[in-house]
Amino acid sequence: MAEKVNKCVIIGAGPAGYTAAIYAARAGLNPVVYTGEQPGGQLTITSDVENYPGYPDGVLGPMMMEDFRKQAERFGTEVIYEKIEKVDFSGPIHKLWTQGGDEVLAHSVVIATGASAKWLGLESEKRLTNFGVSACAVCDGFFFKGMDVAVVGGGDTAAEEALYLSKLCPKVHLLVRRDELRASNIMQERIRKTENIIVHWNTETDEILGEKEVEAVRVKNNKTGEISEIPIKGFFVAIGHRPNTEIFKEWLDMNDAGYLITKPDVTATKVAGVFAAGDAQDYIYRQAVTAAGTGCMAALESERYLAEKGIE
Length: 312
What we know:
- The chain has 312 residues and is an alpha/beta fold.
- Helices cover 24% and strands 26% of the residues.
- It contains seven helices and 19 strands.
- It has helices spanning 15-26, 61-74, 123-127, 137-140, 156-166, 185-193, 288-308; strands at residues 5-11, 32-34, 48-49, 59-60, 78-80, 84-88, 94-98, 103-111, 115-117, 133-134, 149-152, 172-175, 197-200, 203-209, 216-221, 227-231, 234-237, 241-243, 274-276.
- The strands form five sheets. Strands 1, 2, 5, 6, 7, 8 and 19 form a seven-stranded mixed β-sheet that branches. It has a five-stranded parallel β-sheet with strand order 10-17-11-12-13, covered by helices on one side. Strands 14-15-16 form a three-stranded antiparallel β-sheet.
- Helix 1 (15-26) packs parallel to helix 2 (61-74).
- It is elongated, with a radius of gyration of 21 Å.
């Protein structure tokens, strides 16, 4: 049985988790970060990050997360490379269990478990990630300025990605499995009005072509069976994200997609002393800089919560 009660335990080691750790450590909360299976989060599968302030020449995603980690550790954060796989938020002392079976006790918990992009599951998709394949147009669209690209998906996410890319690229091919979009009416109208977005109905991705970088996509019409190839340089998967929040279902409120629900204008959940930051609760922006911002908020709220409880 665990005996030590940590002031602040942070679950997740992306921009939200590490920023929470930096603020919590500087406030004397002696935070412990459990990294999970993907230390650094989604940025570890991102090549060049050019939209995070402070890196005028851009930075590799994994290197940026190394910088975050080093800064957190500089102020005394303990980083543990394990996954939290079970929690119990029923009492004033929060209980967590690692994958290895260790029990961890905490007065406050910051959930920064992030979200994972949904993928098509193609071998070529995995092989060409960061070589033309991306799950974030806002992150990577700039690299394809002046080039033809494709977006796969039929919901609001795909529509938003296509519209964003249409301002940078001569042609945006929107690949939709059905004969209609699932996107909201206003987004559908914007797609219709954007001349350089070409919608391919009843279309499924058969293969992404290219050895070292994306050169084309081979698609199949699921009504006629016709196979065709579309020359492109960028392939954007926009079929949604899956928040990594499964272990909290029994304890915290979440929306239909699994994103944690926090109180208005703060990161506090319905459980006292439990806060949620980053992509685990943000289904709108999903950017490193906004994740970092909510990580800061969660740490500050955690500090105030502990002060109110008289925990030093």
